Amino acid sequence: MAVRANQIFVNLPVQDLKRSVDFFTKVGFEFNAQFTDDKATCMIVGENIFAMLLVEERFQSFITKKIANAAETTEVIVALSVASREEVDAIVQAALDAGAKQYNEPQDHGFMYGRSFQDLDNHLWEVSYINLSAFPSNQPEQIR
């Protein structure tokens, strides 16, 4: 049986929820008020994709390990695929304008273009556009 989830919720610890909501609002994201309180919010990333931004105390209540210091370590890169190169540039520029730091230089592989940034809590975000019609034919259709 193949696993096919209906939705994905990425949980990210944040130091200051209001600051994070203000930042991601400036980037262009919206939030689901139904799943928001003073300790957490549900950021809408796509139709069935969400990021739960949880104050560190709330995040810690779900785990027994220490929260990674995202300024020093990386546990995850949140990678988003969008519809065009222009959308990649617009999202990343909005993040930079809102206070994010550029993480890597833009990557242009012809069939794939991407840029990345580090948010206010040092989480890594990668935004890319993939032109499947220009995808190299020597690549396997599916990795198993």
Characterize the biggest β-sheet.
5 strands, mixed
Instruction: Sketch the topology as an H/E string, one letter per element.
Output: EHEEEHEHEEEE
Instruction: Report the C-alpha radius of gyration, rounded.
Output: 16 Å
Counting DSSP E segments of at least 2 residues, the number of strands comes to 9
Quote the distance from N terminus to C terminus. 14 Å
Catalogue the unreliable spans: none
Could you say which overall geometry the principal axes of the C-alpha atoms support? globular
Number of helices: 3
> Mean pLDDT across all residues, rounded?
93
Q: Which structural class do you get from the secondary structure elements? A: alpha+beta
Amount of beta strand: 25-35%
Helix proportion range? 10-25%
Please provide a written account of the structure:
- Strand 8 and strand 9 form a beta hairpin.
- With 144 residues, this protein is of the alpha+beta class.
- Helix content is 20%, strand content 33%.
- The model has no long low-confidence stretch (mean pLDDT 93).
- It is built from 3 helices and 9 strands.
- It has helices at 17-27, 56-60, 85-97; strands spanning 8-14, 30-32, 40-46, 49-55, 77-81, 101-102, 107-108, 112-118, 124-130.
- The radius of gyration is 16 Å and the shape is globular.
- The strands form 2 sheets. Strands 5, 6, 7, 8 and 9 form a 5-stranded mixed beta sheet that branches. Strands 1-4-3-2 form a 4-stranded mixed beta sheet.
